Amino acid sequence: MERRRVGILGATGTVGQRFVQLLDRHPWFEIAWLAASDRSAGKPYRQACNWKLDTPMPSRIAEMVLQTNTPVEGADPPRTIFAALDADVARDLEPRFAAAGCAVISNSSAFRMTQDVPLVVPEVNGDHLPLLETQAVRRQSGGYIVTNPNCSAIGLVLVLKPLEQRFGIESLFVSTMQAVSGAGYPGVPSMDILGNVVPFIRNEEEKMQEEVGKLLGLYSGNSIDMLQAKVSAHCNRVAVLDGHTECVSIKLRTPASREQVLAAWESFHPLEGRGLPSAPEKPVLYNDSPDRPQPRLDVSAGNGMSTTVGRLRPCALLDWKFVLTSHNVIRGAAGAAVLNAELLARGGKLPKGAGRAS
Ligand SMILES: NC(=O)c1ccc[n+]([C@@H]2O[C@H](COP(=O)([O-])OP(=O)(O)OC[C@H]3O[C@@H](n4cnc5c(N)ncnc54)[C@H](OP(=O)(O)O)[C@@H]3O)[C@@H](O)[C@H]2O)c1
Q1: Catalytic residues, which ones?
Q2: What is the pLDDT of residues 300-349, one digit of tens each?
Q3: For site-directed labelling of 323, which of 152, 162, 311, 339 has its Cα 20 to 30 A away?
Q4: Span 116-134, pLDDT tens digits
Q5: Does domain 2-150+334-357 have CATH number 3.40.50.300?
Q6: CA of 99 to the centre of ligand 1 (A)
Q7: Where do the CATH 3.40.50.720 domains begin and end in the chain?
Q8: Pocket around ligand 1: residues whose beta carbon is below 6 Å from it?
Q9: How far apart are CA 159 and CA 261, in angstroms?
């Protein structure tokens, strides 16, 4: 089968390394181009990248030379670009790649809330993708930008979607315990986080609150009608390497029993039968042990693509409360973007480019 040539922007960072790991043996995509900052351009990946994953750096990628961060010209440029850039850099670079005809599959917050940019989790709101057709750049070059949400919003919306579908959500309160890898590398200094909790992550609470509204909103032709629910988030950084844990209290529009809530999660597998390689069999897994989920034990569920939820119990203030854990760099970033690209490929929406036999 033909594999589509793809590129990674920000390939040396925390999310970029996960892209390399997840795409190295991907059945549909082949890494053909890597770029990062000017500091890295011209160096082989093995020299530019401080590899932090527990699998070896793929040998083919190790010898690839990082290119400059400009759209590729030439006979066979990769037209699908996975972007793992800080928002300030993304705001400048991502539109340039879209203007050059690329599908930019972005992780940054720069354009998530822009009206004509889809903010997508395939299991939750894959039906928002047609929004990309309203981007002016799409008409001009064929390129576009698609985003995935903040790493703490994504685990949450997977668990909320089946509840919103069946019962409606009136309000929710969420308090997070977020891993240090969520801050990129080197991230939070060890002297600030070891033996400590930092009750502040810049802009994180705002992102969670507004992104949940867009993700659970309704696509109405050329915009998204935001979910009308009150969302209050507290975001905390804790001394965990990978895996964000969130304590949630929720008020539903229609009362639901414990059995009905569990059944909503159990029967939630909207991508079943779609044949997307990165889609987990079950995006939401309920663990009924009294002390689960825990990041160390549950972060890799579904190859890091499933959210584990547990401790469902009545809430004295709202209706129900529960705890969830999801992998912030796989489901919360690189894996989410790869799944978005698979959904776009399945829908024939990735720009044409030459492929190679795998
Ligand atoms: N970490 C997570 O769990 C997570 C989850 C969800 C979303 N995100 C988002 O994903 C994005 C990347 O985060 P990260 O954690 O991977 O950050 P990171 O570890 O700091 O990596 C940043 C990457 O951007 C590159 N870069 C910096 N300036 C550049 C420029 N001018 N042009 C091209 N590349 C440039 C860096 O290259 P050099 O090595 O050359 O400096 C590096 O590859 C951010 O927007 C973040 O908010 C992260």
Answers
A1: 151, 244
A2: 999 999 999 999 999 999 999 999 999 999 999 999 999 999 999 999 99
A3: 339
A4: 999 999 999 999 999 999 9
A5: no
A6: 21
A7: 2-150+334-357
A8: 9-16, 36-37, 39-40, 69, 84-87, 89, 107-108, 151, 181-182, 184-185, 328-329, 332-333
A9: 10
